[in-house]
């Protein structure tokens, strides 16, 4: 069965998704749209697809069986809602937005529509992450630590806090999501942010170059997260979970899992392409109508966004923010 795929947005992350879809025989990209008409036409030519004149042209159930929404979060407007109301299965990149109330309203419409959809928290699709989640089931822990250190996104809009939410909301969101996925929900957060190095990169930037978060979990555990988009000399990311009788670490964006317990020490490194696994899961869901293979939906992604935006608010207001 051939699935006709449309793309709204043809930037870097969209191109990466397109590469994965090329590996799936039943996937056929038929329509692409981007505000940059030249980029859309160039991408379409390389795919044997057609460059659409508007997002509305892509969101046409008679032309596509599913759509990928890959425009920046501040620019999505009603795209997911339109897809939902028209009954078009959609995949949307993370984060879901920068306006929490807007995203909550979208979540309600999407839920009521019943449309099949997925959110791009791709690290969940590593088998090592699934192993970590299974290991931690009903296993008490008291401390979690996470970090996301690296460089900046090249786009100008990304360096504006009101457009991207900053490194925490857009990039370290993956580590936040891993914590939620394997360890459970957050309860409250207190955050501090710095802005001492970012202006060396871009004098007009309004995002923070680093952040330090402390938080509590619904389980009663406490934790911390450090993040920076100006740490290219020593990049890396980890999620660590400490129990009284075990230690678990996910590193390399979830690809490598380390567990120490009474049984000894073991390390696993995934051989899977998580992006390809994510694409296969979405398309199989579209083909079958079954949601079982989709590991993150809109309401789940909303919970990750709620935490990162709560942390931003905490840093601004200099107070502990509770998660509702």
From TrEMBL:
Residues 149-245 form the GFO/IDH/MocA-like oxidoreductase domain. It holds the Pfam family GFO_IDH_MocA_C3. One of its GO terms (molecular function) is nucleotide binding. InterPro entries: Gfo/Idh/MocA-like_OxRdtase_N, Gfo/Idh/MocA_Oxidoreductase, GFO_IDH_MocA-like_dom, NAD(P)-bd_dom_sf. Residues 3-121 form the Gfo/Idh/MocA-like oxidoreductase N-terminal domain. This is Gfo/Idh/MocA family oxidoreductase. It comes from Paenibacillus aurantius.
